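Hi again,

Forgot to attach this to my earlier email, sorry! This is the prediction with zinc ion bound. I've pasted everything inline since the attachment limit keeps bouncing my files.
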Amino acid sequence: MRPCGRPTKSGNPCRAQFSGRGFACKLHTTDHEKTLIEAFEHGRRTGREEERTWQQRSANTRIEQLERQVRTLEEKLDSRDRRYEVDGHQAVTVDGYAYVWTGQGRLEVGDTVLLPENYVSALRRGPGPFPETVTQLGTTYSGTHSRIIAKAPADD
Ligand SMILES: [Zn+2]
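Structure tokens for the complex follow:
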């Protein structure tokens, strides 16, 4: 709170207290001053909004840049490590896992193959081989590749 101090009709300074942004007490604030205060408040509000938007935008841009960098690195690693043959057999990726195909012909993406039971399949589907779809040609896995049991016969 601070005193207004504007001259009153009697000639003494106004003793009314006011607080916050302003030039004088309510009674002594001129219309021009009211307009100024309003313009100032408005500018401050929109300034804050703009700053928020700008911060959000620059954060998004930074995230996009990082995502691009990660993708580029992944592609680089992938192309360096990807093998289409493992031990002389075609290597493929089936639902994220690496397999070799030791049977006749070549496999293509979308082919249905019969896979040997593994720990996950046993939990999810029960014991025994299970059908799955080839998702990628080649693998980036450096360990032992499981063998595909069979290629599903054509439908027609
Ligand atoms: Zn006053």
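The pocket of zinc ion is lined by residues 4, 6, 14, 16, 24-25, 27-28 (CB under 6 Å). The mean pLDDT is 88.

That should be everything now.

G.
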